[in-house]
């Protein structure tokens, strides 16, 4: 009688296992709908104070958990069969290899090594499955706390900066590489005004603290101060952008980016000339901001200087020198005459103008790569972000070392702090936006999937704490800005 070789037997066993696994999966899939319907019927017959939407969400989550563990159980059975088969084959080899028997010690060592490998594979499979379940819970929680409300589409190139007006009417402003700045209705997403006075990329936008005036910085080596007049449209009911089915994150190509003409920004009123042009720089003006009171403005440039101007006369008051490389950002204190500038030289500097007769400067060193931004918080703190993938919280009274350090997996762009709640929004090169508290504890990550979120690098974030609909805005190089509603009490409770 012919004897079946070991390789043929192993191949046949593997084929039978695959067939058995396939049948198990089909049986699982075929019974999912029936099981879900039965569970819903059971829930409907029970008294509960939970809303039906919450109950349905919980039911879907537990159904997912059951499916994950069912698949894990099937994989576990197959791994056990492989262990038994391997032990049998090793026992047979121990009697036939080179016509001599293996010693019990050798056989035990070999079997133990193979069993250990399979055991590690089982642990890895279990860890991956349970991690996916935990991730599902985190994703659902994140979506419940951080909801996408509105997308603002109309620019023809990437958006570098986003800002929210501090006076009525409250509008959203965006600065883009397409040489324009746009003003938006936060509620409807409609473009209300377009500024076209620059001949280079518009790198930042900031609103005057008390008037309907905007300050923009540009690659044309100037900063412009211009007035706008807008009338808010009547808000329309918006569709819920967060009814998602829980798909995994996917990669996007440039074809997936929004159409630059999507919201007809060319139809909105156009402002063509500034009230004042600030022209003292010899390089790209990368950022600009208003000092407290709005009578002076500060600009930061690639010519390695920051300039302080008198708004009414456009005269240069101070030229702030000392950085060794190009500046990347500038920010002013909300209540004091303080300015912080950041640079590619890995430092940021604090400039004090509280004494009119003299201004002092303090240098903060602690990053190992470009400092992309540094911003003030309430009190005596500054938060800095860097291309070295860290964010550091500093006490202005102690420049030697940060009081907290946040380490991330991607370069950090223009950060913003929710002053009232002391929450930091971190936009990243890898398209993520994460929220941390001032002590460095991670609170949430904004949802990003194949239906919502940024498709390319996120350049900037801006909080609007008092707006009832959107209290956080982000913009990116996918040519869109996004308005989010962050449930801050729930976010802090999760912490």
Automatic annotation (TrEMBL):
Q: Does the keyword Nucleotide-binding apply?
A: no
Source superkingdom: Eukaryota
Keywords from UniProt, A to Z, are: Coiled coil, Cytoplasm, Nucleus, Repeat, WD repeat
Mainly localized where? Answer: cytoplasm
Matching entries from CDD domains are given as: WD40
Positions of WD repeats: 152-194, 195-226, 278-319, 320-361, 364-404
Which regions form coiled coils? 69-96
Identification of the protein by name: WD repeat-containing protein 37
